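@channel anyone free to eyeball this complex?
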Amino acid sequence: MFLSIFDIFKPGIGPSSSHTMGPMVAAARFLDALRGGAEPEPGAGPPARLTATLHGSLAWTGKGHATDRAVMLGLLGFVPAKVDMDAAEAALADLKETRRVTPGDLPEMAFDPEADVVFDWGPPLPGHANGLVLRAFDAGERLHMEETYYSVGGGFVVTSRELSDPPDLHAAKAEAGFPHPFGSAAEMLEMGAATGLTVAQMKWRNECALLSEAELRAKVDGIWTAMNACIDRGLSQDGILPGGLSVKRRAKAIHAQLREEAGRNLAQPHVVNDWLSVYAMAVNEENAAGGVVVTSPTNGAAGVVPAVIRYYRDHCVGATEEGIRTFLLTAAAIGGLIKHNASISGAEVGCQGEVGSASAMAAAGLCAALGGTNAQVENAAEIALEHHLGMTCDPAAGLVQVPCIERNGLGAIKAVSAASLSLRGDGTHFMPLDNCIEAMRQTGRDMSEKYKETSQGGLAVNLPEC
Ligand code: SF4
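replying in thread with the prediction:
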């Protein structure tokens, strides 16, 4: 099993990795297929019109997650990692006027933003809760090409063919020679014991199979730079978040209070929890506003890992830049195990897979950065994940705001507590991380669809009277 740190931590735009980034990636992949990556239907003329049909959770909460906008941006040629928001807004405005897209190397094609994104409220597609079908027609309205994509969480997208016959990532990249290909926490601990390496060192050596040490260091540092910039941006913004719930941004005001109180000697010890929350909320307010965030491992859960790193950097004794790299590499290793063996998708397993996974990653990362052993790292991740088991995904109005913004703060607090508890032991504990990940997978499988990013139950149907 190999999932790169750069698969787990990816820059993109809010508010959702599965409902915004994934569909944008799917649209970009469809354009590539039209450019010659796939065979058109026999006898069809060149593509002249495009449509997109959203299914399952993408339909149910697609409006709140701006999925229609994301598909349009993808068809206009934008990709999440490089999107220039000003250019994107201008292109969307132009599309509304002209109802035509002109992606590079393809003929101009009709696309009506009002009519050509269809929200299908029927049963989800068989492969996954987040399905979308993209179609191209020729000038005579004959089908030119059709492809079904599934957005499986964290911005990852697969076609229906890839879903039923997944490319074996490990085999496909085996020639790169990953020296420590652990696919479970048990294997991770065994390989660490056999080599004397930490989780971060094993992850580093695996990544070095693809990049030089200098490139890898620069790219890992770039992840933290982007995360930290997102925190700072979120701490400087105020106003009302988009979407119609009239949710106010709070991070800036809370941060100002905390800074003001920091000069006094009267602070209560639990105020450190407010620092953790405010860092996380800053990121998730940016995400809710459609700003640039880093998936960690998803957009909805993007605040937890940055908040705990900022806590480590600004509040912990002896924090170093190398400690931040250790944090990120360890967190990515744990995120990879969870994605490989269960899911990081709220539409698949509920919020336990998003904020729960993020909290486990952050707990492991902090534990490692503070000098924890591999056993303590595994223990920290397990504690954090265990106490998110069963957590549903029920966002109000399908927006990644309530409960998501505060929930990231609470996920960060749990991560710090989990790392701290773990560091007080020697790593031996009752419930292995692998069993906890399997429990999360089974719990998600058994969870009602109402609680898996469909906004059909829980908080989403218990809104206050306005
Ligand atoms: S409730 Fe959790 S899983 Fe659902 S949208 Fe919010 S952060 Fe994502």
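from a first look: The longest helix spans residues 213-235.
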